[in-house]
Amino acid sequence: MKLIKEEKIGKNVDDQFIWSFDVLENGVYVILISARCKNWLQNYKRLFNDDDLAIQIDNYLFPEIKGKKREFASPGSWNGNEIKGNAKDVLFLLPLRAGTHKIKFWVDARPILEEIKIYKIDENETDLIKSGIVAPGKFLDVIFKNLKIEKLEIKARAEIGSKLEVKIDLDNIIYSRGFVKLYKDIVIRDDVNLRSS
Questions:
Q1: C-alpha dihedral over 4, 143, 115, 69, to 10 degrees?
Q2: I need a labelling partner for 94 at 20 to 30 A (CA). Which of 22, 28, 107, 186 fits?
Q3: How many C-alpha atoms does 144 have within 13 Å on its Cβ side?
Q4: 3-state secondary structure of 82
Q5: Cα separation, 33 vs 142, whole angstroms
Q6: Are 5 and 21 in contact (CB under 8 A)?
Q7: Would you give the DSSP letter of residue 44?
Q8: Beta strands 139-144; 2-12: pairing state
Q9: Is the pLDDT of residue 191 over 80?
């Protein structure tokens, strides 16, 4: 995996701000966007509105905008009432053609765009932890778009009282094996089997 572009921004982003980048060859890329959003209580000077952020990469809007108030509450978005002023990283893995690409930011209130990184994946297997892309201890969403995934392994650790979700919206998914390891002080059993809902 190779870092091809990085920009530390660290400031408020305006609605429909566009950030452009070029890729030299067709391939699969990781776009990491880190942003910080305040909740309604932290924004008391702004009439108690929380910060929200969603992005559009070329023609793909992640996620769909819900309602007139642009309530971004699905994976791939930043919702201030959920992350409460903390930074959240969202990784988008998708194929891109050689040329110029645009990221458009859909904003409600005043989120802070921390940084953007673009990586080119050169191998068939990608380990986001070993590659150093994923920073431990941060809120994180990983979104796959227009990719055929043959094998996906997820390892995660969550603090007591925190929330850990795995959402998969693929129609033809086959679960060969899966379990969640839980601490014994939370439940009596050591693991919980996963099943399709």
A1: 140
A2: 107
A3: 13
A4: helix
A5: 11
A6: yes
A7: G
A8: unpaired
A9: no
What Rg do the C-alpha atoms of the chain give, in angstroms? 18
Length of the chain: 197
**Distances 169 to 51, 78, 157, 173, 175 between C-alpha atoms, Å:** 27, 19, 22, 9, 13
Which residue is it, tokens 């209130």? 109
Residue whose tokens read 């399709």:
196
98: left (phi over 0), alpha (psi -120 to 50) or beta: beta
Q: Amino acid letter at 47?
A: L
Q: What share of the chain is helix, strand, coil (3-state, %, to 5)?
A: 5, 40, 55
> What phi and psi, each to the nearest 5 degrees, are found at residue 13?
-110, 140
Give me the helices (H) in the chain, please. 80-83
The backbone torsions φ and ψ at residue 80, rounded to the nearest 5 degrees and listed phi first, read -60, -35
Cα separation, 67 vs 53, in Å, equals: 14
Question: What does the pLDDT look like over 128-163, one tens digit per residue?
Answer: 878 888 877 677 888 888 888 777 777 777 777 667
Q: Whole-prediction pTM value?
A: 0.80
Q: How far is CA 48 from CA 43, 51, 54, 151, 169, in A?
A: 5, 10, 20, 43, 33
Region class of 124: left (phi > 0), else alpha (psi between -120 and 50), else beta: alpha
Q: Which two tokens stand for residue 41?
A: 């209580």
